[in-house]
């Protein structure tokens, strides 16, 4: 049985099939997302609880510890880390990779409900949880500053005109703001005045809560119609707070202005962010899982000029970090290396075959195998990243092996005088099993990578599948396109070994025969030396194995090589007793010292406790 016969006898159909594979691969290339590494969904959930005014010790004993006891009973939990700071508790839960994130969310919600009666009764809000991906850093970070507008107005403009528009772009996931100060009303109680009227701080808090609500008021039911009472008690003007009645004393109302000071300010004045030395609102943009990071950032960059026009001229929008700079550079470098690898492989093939027609056949199998793999990568929801492109680069040397073996076997029959068509049939039938065995043996080496567990297995499974698919497609090309092209292109006597060719091109023939003859002669001499000194050869082989083992033990090991992305992240720590103002001054002094380095292009910093930062 000859699987190549049908393709040899139908050259037009075979050519159209290969062209279709090439076109499908080219189209798939345009839709493949670009990324630094394969997309891995980490089943990680962060639980954040805010309890303003509580010390770290209180947060640990009254909130973090009860939640940890409940979370520790969840099945599939691999790791749990917690941080308790002044007014905030953050617990990060990492589950087994085989556990679905939706199931993990249900378990977390059930654990929070079970711990509800163990938490403080005056907790402002129940613990909130959200899915997080430790590897999904912001793809773009913007900083908005103003020298004239108050930060509360800057935050409002950024939230309504900038962040919301960016979040609507395709591929954009989470858009978070840091350092912004939402507008709010701050009521500072006067303890002396409260005591004079026989009131306390709880009376003031209860009055404000009851006065600033929007609850249903009921309805009027008549014989013909029903009317709903619509009355909004929410206070929108800060001055209205001053006239709220807290109590009555001696028939006279006691208003808030009598026992407290009402100021228009910030909702949380203990958070701040800076760009260099200027206070700013930081905008972090994250992409959706599977989205092309390059396209996402390009869309945002194209939209930024329009967004700047909608903002007041007093606001400056600057790009702090752009992850695509390093991603573009690394992917571009790997693509260039892949192109060089293809060119070098073709050059080596031509150097040894010495025939342009014979070189054309394996030269077509290389790009066809690589481009055809792109279509499978698209169907498998893979991305073009450093690992998948590395797999394509490594496969470049493998994909020509089957083609060269097939060509040499067919050419051997042609040199014996067979017709090219008959030689293709005989040669392909004889070598088909060899091609299949070579392919299976190469793929078998990659099978262990597919069964690796944990994050390493998730990352390298894409590498193994890409390399295996490329090798498999190259085998199919070697059994279909290569024998067909041999039957059509190869002649009964190859031009580089005929006397007529030597007569027409004596210099080229002498040069080719000369260097190839010297190479064969060098191999013969080395082989003779090896046979004459067999004990020494075995000793060298054993020494090489021993040295390899020793070097493996000594050489530094790591998950991935350290890559210089041009970004440095640091955490500043201070005693828990430090005030916000003192911490802000310390942060500014540190920023000034760092910015004195001429190699520092920009710097952003953040302090405070909010929904995105719990330390």
Short account of what is shown:
The protein is of the alpha+beta class. The protein is built from 19 helices and 17 strands.
CATH fold call of the domain at 5-37 and 335-497: Multidrug efflux transporter AcrB transmembrane fold
Lateral arrangement of strands in the main beta sheet: 2-3-1-4
Main sheet record: 4 strands, antiparallel
CATH hierarchy: architecture of the domain at 5-37 and 335-497? Up-down Bundle
**How many angstroms does the end-to-end distance come to?**
71 Å
Radius of gyration: 36 Å
Query: Taking all residues together, what is the mean pLDDT?
Result: 83
> Given the structure, what is the number of helices?
19
Strand content bin = 15-25%
> Structural class, judged by helices and strands?
alpha+beta
Label the overall shape.
elongated
Number of strands: 17
Task: Give me the CATH superfamily of the domain at 5-37 and 335-497.
Answer: Multidrug efflux transporter AcrB transmembrane domain
Question: Spans with pLDDT under 50 lasting ≥5 residues?
Answer: 494-505
Helix content, binned percent: 40-55%
**The level-1 CATH class of the domain at 5-37 and 335-497:** Mainly Alpha
Characterise the protein shown here.
With 615 residues, this protein is an alpha+beta fold. Among the domains are: 5-37 and 335-497, Multidrug efflux transporter AcrB transmembrane domain (Multidrug efflux transporter AcrB transmembrane fold, Up-down Bundle), CATH 1.20.1640.10; 41-134, Alpha-Beta Plaits (2-Layer Sandwich), CATH 3.30.70; 184-266, 2-Layer Sandwich (Multidrug efflux transporter AcrB TolC docking domain, DN and DC subdomains), CATH 3.30.2090.10. 55% of the residues lie in helices and 16% in strands. It contains 19 helices and 17 strands. It has helices at 5-8, 11-31, 56-71, 101-114, 151-167, 191-196, 201-211, 238-242, 256-259, 293-310, 324-353, 356-379, 386-415, 420-450, 454-489, 499-504, 506-532, 534-554, 580-595; strands spanning 44-50, 77-85, 88-95, 128-132, 140-146, 172-178, 183-189, 219-221, 226-228, 245-249, 252-255, 260-266, 272-275, 278-279, 281-287, 315-322, 604-607. A four-stranded antiparallel sheet has the order 2-3-1-4, covered by helices on one side. A four-stranded antiparallel sheet has the order 6-15-5-16. It is elongated.
């Amino acid at each position: 049985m000859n699987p190549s016969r049908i393709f040899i006898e139908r050259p037009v159909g075979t050519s159209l099939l290969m062209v279709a594979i090439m076109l499908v691969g080219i189209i798939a290339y345009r839709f493949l997302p670009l990324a630094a590494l394969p997309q891995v969904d980490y089943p990680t959930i962060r639980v954040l609880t805010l309890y303003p005014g509580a010390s770290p010790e209180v947060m640990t004993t009254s909130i973090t510890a009860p939640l940890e006891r409940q979370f520790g009973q969840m099945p599939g939990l691999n790791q749990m880390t917690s941080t308790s700071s002044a007014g905030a508790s953050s617990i990060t839960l990492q589950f087994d990779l085989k556990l679905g994130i939706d199931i993990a969310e249900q378990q977390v919600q059930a654990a929070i409900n079970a711990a509800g009666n163990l938490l403080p009764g005056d907790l402002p809000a129940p613990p909130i949880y959200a899915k997080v991906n430790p590897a999904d850093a912001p793809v773009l970070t913007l900083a908005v500053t103003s020298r004239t507008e108050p930060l509360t107005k800057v935050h409002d403009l950024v939230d309504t005109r900038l962040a919301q528009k960016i979040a609507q772009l395709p591929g954009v996931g989470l858009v978070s703001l840091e350092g912004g100060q939402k507008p709010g009303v701050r009521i500072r109680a006067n303890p002396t005045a409260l005591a004079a009227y026989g009131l306390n701080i709880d009376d003031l808090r209860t009055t404000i809560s009851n006065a600033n609500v929007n609850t249903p008021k009921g309805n009027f039911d008549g014989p013909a119609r029903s009317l709903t009472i619509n009355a909004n008690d929410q206070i929108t003007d800060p001055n209205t707070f001053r006239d709220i009645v807290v109590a009555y004393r001696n028939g006279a109302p006691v208003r808030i202005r009598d026992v407290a000071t009402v100021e228009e300010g910030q909702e949380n004045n203990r958070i701040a962010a800076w760009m260099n030395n200027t206070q700013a609102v930081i905008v972090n943009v994250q992409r959706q899982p599977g989205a092309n990071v390059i396209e996402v950032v390009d869309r945002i960059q194209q939209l930024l000029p329009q967004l700047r026009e909608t903002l007041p001229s007093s606001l400056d929008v600057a790009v702090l970090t752009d992850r695509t700079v390093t991603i573009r550079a690394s992917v571009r470098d790997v693509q260039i290396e892949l192109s060089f690898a293809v060119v070098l492989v073709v050059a080596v093939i031509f150097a040894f075959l010495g025939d342009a027609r014979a070189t054309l056949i394996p030269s077509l199998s290389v790009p066809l195998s690589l481009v055809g793999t792109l279509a499978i990568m698209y169907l498998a929801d893979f991305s073009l990243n450093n690992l998948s492109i590395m797999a394509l680069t490594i496969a470049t040397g493998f994909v020509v092996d089957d083609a060269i073996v097939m060509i040499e076997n067919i050419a051997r029959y042609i040199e014996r005088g067979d017709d090219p068509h008959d030689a293709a049939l005989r040669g392909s039938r004889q070598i088909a099993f060899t091609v299949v065995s070579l392919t299976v043996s190469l793929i078998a080496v990659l099978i262990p990578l597919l069964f690796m567990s944990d994050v390493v297995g998730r990352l390298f499974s894409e590498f193994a599948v890409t390399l295996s698919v490329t090798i498999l497609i190259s085998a199919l090309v070697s059994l279909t396109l290569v024998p067909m092209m041999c039957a059509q292109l190869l002649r009964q006597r190859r031009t580089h070994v005929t006397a007529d060719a030597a007569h027409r091109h004596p210099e080229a023939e002498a040069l080719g025969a000369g260097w190839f003859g010297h190479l064969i002669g060098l191999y013969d001499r080395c082989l003779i030396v090896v046979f004459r000194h067999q004990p020494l050869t075995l000793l060298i082989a054993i020494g090489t194995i021993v040295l390899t083992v020793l070097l493996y033990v000594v050489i530094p090991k790591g998950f991935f090589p350290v890559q210089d992305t041009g970004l440095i992240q640091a955490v500043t720590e201070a005693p828990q007793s430090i005030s916000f103002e003192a911490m802000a001054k310390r942060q500014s002094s540190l920023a000034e010292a760092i910015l004195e380095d001429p190699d520092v292009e920009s710097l952003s910093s953040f302090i405070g406790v909010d929904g995105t930062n719990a330390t």
